[in-house]
Design goal:
- It is built from 9 helices and 14 strands.
- It is an alpha/beta fold.
- The chain is globular and about 65 Å long.
């Protein structure tokens, strides 16, 4: 494991719980020796290192989990690829599309697995929504709308207690947060054909944008809307659980996700909305999606099926991200197939 920061704790917890299935978190690396030592003590990690190279030279590993900020991703992936070592890399994936393409090329040249820790598609409400769509419960899908409203971006202290580097990111809302929902929309509706975006910075202490509207067109006529505002909030016991609410509308029914992870179905033409109950655990982060993703990667490594979040496929998300920023700059809709994005 590379990283002992705020979000890495969810990775550590998930690996520890996977220990019952023969998965051992055997080494931890972080430049912050105090954070690394505290994490190792908490999760009974037997070896701690201050250097990735030292850890890779000293340990015999089956998988490297990279949970550090983007500037460290490409060097870590290069080091893993030099040893043909499978790796999972946190998002935002590398320092942008060009670096991500280099990372993918390195892993593929080494013949080693590279997955992106894109965990929102593994959140249980999105998994169940995807299952319902595949079963035809909504009929023909007209539109999906997600309203991001975590309410955590107000004032000069925004994000400093959790992920302070958020304030310095020149690209924030889309690169750090909306990228999750670009991936969720792809999981639910397939590949988008066009995008239109309008972005704004509402909190002046930030370097990047923290609000925006993104409109995606899909083949077959379906559309998706991402309506993001990190200063506004939504009704929820924990506003970081779902980060907002979603409505998927189809010819047969509509499906609504609320801030507490509950799903509600309403048949077309009816005023009666019924809760659709499904099994999930309110544990870890986002309905235990970190555990679900790591479980998925381990199952894949053991031959239990294809990998959903391969880095090669994730490049499509980053190309869409580039088109979003370019659309905002130009003030017009862009075709993802025809328009050239620098």
């Amino acid at each position: 494991m590379l990283g002992a920061g705020y979000f890495a704790q969810f990775h550590h917890d998930a690996w520890a719980r996977l220990g019952s299935d023969g998965v051992a978190l055997c080494a931890l690396c972080d430049r912050d020796s105090e954070a690394a030592a505290a994490t190792a003590a908490r999760f009974a990690v037997p070896a701690v290192y201050g250097s990735l190279e030292e850890m890779l030279e000293s340990e015999t590993l089956d998988l490297l989990d990279i949970a550090t900020p983007p500037p460290s991703h490409l060097p870590a992936i290069r080091a893993a690829a030099a040893r043909a070592l499978p790796a999972i890399c946190q998002k935002p994936f590398c320092g942008g599309l060009a670096e991500a393409e280099q990372a993918v090329a390195l892993a593929e040249a080494a013949g080693s697995l590279l997955a992106v820790h894109e965990n929102f598609r593994f959140q249980p409400w999105h998994r169940e929504s995807r299952r319902l769509l595949a079963a035809g419960a909504l009929g023909t899908v007209y539109q999906a709308t997600f309203r991001l409203r975590p309410g955590d971006g107000r004032g000069p202290q925004a994000y400093l207690d959790r992920q302070p580097y958020f304030q310095q990111m020149p690209r924030f809302l889309v690169h750090e947060t909306a990228i999750h929902f670009i991936d969720v929309f792809r999981a639910l509706l397939g590949e988008p054909e066009a995008v239109y975006a309008r972005l704004a910075r509402l909190n002046p202490v930030l370097a990047g944008e923290d609000a925006g509207l993104l409109l995606f067109d899909f083949s077959g006529g379906a559309r998706a809307v991402f309506d993001g505002n990190r200063l506004a909030d939504h009704r929820a016991q924990d506003r970081r659980l779902t980060m907002g609410d979603m409505l998927i509308e189809g010819s047969a029914a509509s499906l609504r996700l609320d801030g507490d992870g509950r799903l509600f179905l309403r048949p077309q033409g009816s005023d009666d909305e019924t809760e659709h109950r499904y099994d999930w655990q309110d544990r870890g982060f986002g309905g235990d999606c970190v555990y679900a993703l790591q479980r998925h990667v381990i199952d894949h490594l053991r031959g239990a099926g294809p990998l959903e979040n391969a880095a090669r496929d994730y490049l499509a998300n980053l190309r869409i991200e580039e088109a979003v920023y370019h659309s905002h700059a130009l003030g017009r809709r862009l075709s993802l197939a025809k328009d050239v994005v620098p």
